[in-house]
Amino acid sequence: MNVREYALDAIYRVLNDHGYANLIMRNENELSEADQALASELVYGTIRNVSFLEFQWKDLVQHIEPRTAALLDLSVYQLQYLDRIPPYAVINEAVNLANRNQKNFVNAVLHKVLKRGMVHPHERDALANRAIELSHPLWLMKLWAAHYGIDTAIRIAEHDQKRPVVYGRINTLKCTKEELAKVPGISFVSDYSFLYDAPIARTDFFKSGKVVVQDKASALIPTLLEVAPGMKVLDVCAAPGTKTQEMAMLMKNEGEIIATDLYPDRIRLLNELMRKTGVSIVHAEAADATKANENWQKESFDRILVDAPCSGLGDLSHKPEIRFHVTPEDLDVLASTQQQILNANAGYLKSKGILVYSTCTLNKKENEQQTKKFLQAHPEFTLISEQTIFPYEENTDGFYAAQFRRA
Question: Which active-site residues does the annotation give?
Answer without folding.
Answer: 360
